[in-house]
Design brief:
The protein contains ten helices and eleven strands. The protein is an alpha/beta fold.
């Protein structure tokens, strides 16, 4: 990696020392590390980012993919980038002006382009965890375009690290979080977001003292249960909402997601605080793990 200009660094140091300035440095892509040089026990994960034609994975499609494969140790420390891929694909229709504005990708950039599916499969092969900064958005698109992503465990760096309350960051966007570490990058291009995510995951966080990736991985590998409070009385809505339940207007039911080992306690609370005189029906539930979480296969409505 090319060293930063010493004269500019000296100037930046003077500005920062004044207390009147904060300096952001451009994020440099992490250098590659050879797999043969990795220590015993090292594992690999994949940072993914997609740019798409819109927000609906049933109607829209990816137009750019960025994959950054990285190695980590048992403590969640990032050891280096082992592979990367960036590619474009022509969606076969003009891009909306808003997509061009956000991504900087134009119809001319995409003309005749096609994702190298064999290369995507190669970079994905053997990774234990796929990470995105909004996995609830990226995973459904990735699975529809490349079904092999459905067989992988996924984690979400946006939701599975408590950036604000536990760690004290002001924002949760990738740009905001890296700015807090004195870095900026060319956001909204897929592979740049991927490298930025790997950089963020490798950072040691101020309150926990753990790496962001260590916290994310521990959270992603926990099993949870999605539980629907079907048939709950109307006058219980405020208690349900205060406890973190969400309302599904189509299913006409409140639902929540709790840790696997907290399910009995949650059912007990519902029995005593929600359902009249403990007359609680059999409540439907679905167990969710990292292979299912953030996918379109997690039901929004109670299973029948």
């Amino acid at each position: 990696m090319r060293d930063r200009d010493p004269e500019l660094e000296a100037l930046a140091a003077r500005l920062e020392a004044s207390g009147d300035y904060r300096i952001l440095r451009r994020l440099r892509r992490a250098p590659r590390v050879e797999r043969a040089a990795l220590p015993d026990g090292a594992r690999e994960a994949l940072a993914l980012d997609l740019e798409t034609t819109g927000l609906d994975p049933t109607l829209d499609v990816p137009i750019e993919v960025g994959l950054v494969r990285f190695a980590y140790d048992g403590e969640g420390r990032i050891l280096g980038v082992t592979d990367a891929l960036e590619a474009l694909e022509d969606p076969g229709r003009p891009l909306a002006p808003e997509v061009v504005r956000i991504t900087g990708i134009t119809d001319a950039d995409l003309t005749g382009q096609r994702f190298p599916d064999a290369e995507v499969a190669r970079v994905l092969d053997g990774v234990g965890l796929v990470v995105a900064h909004n996995a609830g958005f990226d995973r459904p698109f990735a699975e529809r375009r490349w079904p092999a992503f459905a067989d992988k465990a996924w984690g979400c760096s946006l939701r599975e690290v408590d950036w604000r309350d536990a760690e004290g960051y002001e924002g949760g966007s990738l740009g905001s979080l890296l700015a807090a570490h004195g870095l900026f990058f060319g956001a909204h291009r897929a592979v740049e977001d991927g490298y930025a995510l790997v950089e963020l995951l490798g950072r040691t966080l101020p309150s926990s003292g753990a790496t962001a990736f260590g916290l994310l991985r521990a959270s992603a590998l926990r099993s949870t249960v999605r539980l629907w409070a079907v048939g709950s009385p109307f006058d219980a809505k405020d208690r349900l909402k205060a406890r973190g339940y969400r309302w599904n207007p189509d299913a006409k039911a409140w639902w929540t997601e709790v840790a696997d080992d907290a399910l009995d306690e949650e059912r007990s609370w519902l029995r005593t605080d929600v359902y009249p005189r403990g007359r609680m029906p059999e409540l439907p539930s679905v167990r969710v793990d990292a292979r299912l979480r953030y996918s379109a296969r997690v039901p929004d409505a109670p299973p029948r």
